[in-house]
Amino acid sequence: MTFSLRPAHDDPYLADLVDRLRDYLDGELADHERERGFTHESRLTRADLEPVWRRSRELGFYGIHLPEEYGGQNLTYTRLAALKEEIGASGRVLAHSVLGDMGGPLRAGDILKHATDHQLAEYLLPLVRGERACCFSLTETDAGSDVRSMRTTAVRDGDGYRLTGHKVFSSAGPFADFAIVVARMAGTGEQEGKKPRFSAFLVDLDSPGCRVEDGATPMSGEHIESDIVLEDCHVPAANLLGEEGEGMRIALGRVTTNRLLHCPTVIGAARRALDLTLDRTRHRTVAGGTPLLALQAIQHKVADMATEFYAARSMTYAALAALDKGEDARAEAFMCKLFVAESAFRILDQAVQIHGKEGLTRGNEIEFLFRKIRMFRVLTGTSEIQRNAIAGLLA
Question: Is 235 helix (H, G, I), strand (E, B) or coil?
Fold first, then answer.
């Protein structure tokens, strides 16, 4: 892919999709947000998101990556990434709901292939249609990078299981009907002297013994997180996802793909920041009416920003192309997550510097993007964890 902030795609099918997505993001969705006064820190409700799910479904974007039998267009990872980049570059508050990231098909990952007919009919197909929403509950206060240290347990109980534990950082939790919860099977683990076994469950969030609480507000200021508190919550056996003991494989089996697919959205956000910065440097003047971009110090900054952006984008799409070919892209996924997170942060840091006081001011988009991008160096695995994994694969 040659360098362009707003790429044109040689693939006619993809070019049409991108054009239609841009039209929706910059037109109808932008108007919708302005009319309602939404900002990135608005406390959104389910009622705010549902119209976007429905409209995006009508336009063919919601769940577009899914196989045709589920109403999607069976997109390659590379094509999906191009759409996710446009989502990140749009600056829209509700963009996360267009493809189904916020509680929709993208949030569910590839669990469709593990689901029974009952689970498809009751949970996952309604989710694909935008009628239901889910969150993924894996992380705990003391079980982040080391998820196997989780304390949430599942105890067999007659025709089902009893779940007890406290999950945190369940993104989309405020809007979800059910959670995909991973729990350790009781009687397994270091304290019991048995190898820990984990299972995954579909948990209705209105079940007795299940409570959804406001989660911590991240530094981005977005209100999209929940804690899922389970106190002897009964889950029917029919809601066991996959086989008992396969929960961690199901949970982590989606990680390589998801790790890579987070990168295009972040690349899009970096593209947005670079675009806003170039616009500022072209029109903001210094003494004598000289544009900022005429100053060599500024030229060097934007040159470095553009170069890092191109490198991050190129390696990400190369890794996704390998994934499309069925190749093992684990190392590339770790490398992309590391490089995209770190380079995007450097791009945003320079963007703030060039914007000066405005870049430090709440309500300015660059200031929001800086906080948002800073989080990606921690979320979905810290940069240090990525380095550990890369070194381990090279050993």
Answer: strand
